[in-house]
Amino acid sequence: MITGVNYYLSRIIEALIISVLVAYLTAPLSIRLAHKLGVIDKPKDARRVHKKPIPRFGGMAIFLGSMAAMTIPAGMNSRIKAAMIGGLLMYLLGIWDDIKDIKPVVKFLGQFIIASIVYALGIRITFISNFFGATVTDSHANVILSAGVAYIITVLWIIGITNAVNLMDGLDGLAAGSVAIMSLSLAYIAYIHGARLGSMPVCIALVAVAGGCIGFLPYNFSPAKTFMGDGGALYLGYMIAVLSVISPLKRATVVGAIIPMLTLAVPIFDTMFAMLRRMLRHESIMKADKGHLHHHLMAAGFGQRRSVLIMYGIVGIMGEVAILISRELYKDAIPLFLIACLYLGIIIIPKRPKKGLKTIITQDVSEIEKENFVDYLNYERQRRKELRAKAAEQVAAEFAEEASPDIDRDIEEYLKKLEPASGEVKEEGNG
Prior knowledge:
Order of helices and strands: HEEHHHEEHHHHHHHHHHHHH
Mean pLDDT: 78
Strand content: under 5%
Largest sheet: 2 strands, antiparallel
Structural class: mainly alpha
C-alpha cells in the first residue's frame, strides 16, 4: 500500500511540474500568435474593466500544459481519454468563438453536442444521493437514475459548469486562480480516498488542470499580459465538470454527490444569481451585464487584485468545506460554509440596501459605484476641511508675533506645502 501511494505521489508531482512548465513556456507563444491572428480583446464596452487591448489566446497555454501532463502521468485510462477528447472539442469551440465571435446560441449548441458525445463515451451521472427515502436505491443508498434522466442531468451539469467558469473570467487572474483552487480541492479529495476507490488517475488529471492554470497565472494576474479567452475558459469549465463526474469519490459517503457542487459553489451561485437577476429585470438570461460577484467587489472600491484575492479566499473556503464533508466531518464543515455564505451576502448587499429583496438583487452595479464615489467625495471634503483648520492654526502660531497683512493668502500657501505630503488615493490595477 505504501509503495502504491508513493508511486502515485510521484506521478502527481510529475504532472504538476509538466503542466506548470509547459503552460508557462507556451504563454509567450500564445501572445505572439494572438497578435498574428488578430485575437485581441478591446475595451469596447463598460462591462470590460481593462483599459487597453489585450491578447486573448492564452487558453492555448493552459490547454497544452494540462493535456501534456494528462497524457504522460495520468495513465490514459478510458475515462481520462474520453475526458480529453471532449476537452479538445470544447477548446476548439472556444477558439472558434475567440476568432469569429460566434452567436451565443451557436456556442450553446456546440456545448450541447460535445456534452452528448462525452455521455456517449461513458462519462455520465448515473445516481444521486437518496435524501428523501426513494425506494429504487443501490447498496450505498443512492437513487439510481434512468438512462434518460442520467443523460439530461449529465448534459446540464457539463454545460452549466462550463458556462459558470466562463462567467468568472471577468477580472485578471480570477478564472485561472479559482479553477486552480477548485481543481486542487477535488484532487485532494480524490487522493485521500484514492487507495480504496481507484480515483488516482482522476486526481492526477485534476492536478494537471491546476498546474496549467498556475503556469498561466504569471501572465494573467493583474496587470494581465494576456487573457485565456473563451478557448481557455470553456476548456477549464468543461474539464473540472467532467473530472468531478468521473471520479468515484462520491461513493465514499451518502452525501458525497454534493461534494463537486460544494467545491464549485461560487461559480454555480454566481451563475444562478445572474440568471435570477436577469429574469427579474425581464431580460434574456444570456445577456451580459456587470452584476457578477467580482463586479460588486470592484464597485466597492477594492481594485482588481484585492477583488480577485477575496474571491480566491471564498473559493478556497468552499473547497475546504467539500474536503471536510468528504471525510464526514460535518460539524467542522458547517461553520466554514456559513462563513462563506456571510461573505457572499456582504459582497452582494450594498452598504445602504434599498427596500425589497428584488430591488437588492436587480440593483445596477453603477448605482453602487456612484454611492461609493459620493462617500469618497465626502471623505475628501472632510479631510481637506481638517487640513485647512490645521493649516490655519499653524499659520496663526507662526505669525503670532508679526501679523500678516493677508492671512488668507498665507494659509493657502501653507496648504500647498502640506498637500503633497497628505498622499493621494491611487487606483489599483489597470484592468
